[in-house]
Design brief:
Helix content: 10-25%
CATH superfamily: 2,3-Dihydroxybiphenyl 1,2-Dioxygenase, domain 1
Strand order of the largest sheet: 1-4-3-2
Number of helices: 2
Radius of gyration: 14 Å
Length: 122
């Protein structure tokens, strides 16, 4: 249902370096790139994640209450991706761990302040 999610950035080269390193851990590769926009996906029929400088030329800001959740195949992968996100310069928004019986997630903010999560459901 979701084709891709787009996040704003004020420093595309810095943000691209962060996401190149982070998303390669789950098979993400750039599939589209322009001067002000870069998108990654793990495959043709998989959802994508994109970064952009705002079209209107105003500074990118973080949406309050907005979060992108990226599914992975195990709780161990959640742990690894959460650690990688922080290692690359992200900040903690809730450590990786169980949230109820069937949901396991770790929450972080990227260097631009966008909130994301890696999660696994049983």
């Amino acid at each position: 249902m979701i084709g891709y999610v787009c996040l704003g950035t004020n420093d595309l080269p810095r943000a691209a370096k962060y996401y190149d390193a982070l998303l390669k851990e789950i098979g993400g590769k750039r599939f589209m790139e322009f001067e002000t926009f870069i998108a990654w996906s793990a495959g043709k029929d998989k959802p994508g994640l994109a970064l952009t400088k705002p079209f209107n030329g105003k500074p990118a800001t973080v949406g309050n209450g907005v979060m992108v959740a990226l599914g992975v195949d195990s709780p161990a992968k959640v742990d690894a991706m959460y650690r990688k996100a922080l290692e690359l310069g992200g900040t903690d928004e809730g450590p990786a761990g169980p949230r109820g019986d069937d949901f396991y997630a770790g929450y972080f903010r990227d260097p631009d302040g966008n909130k994301l999560s890696f999660f696994h459901m049983k």
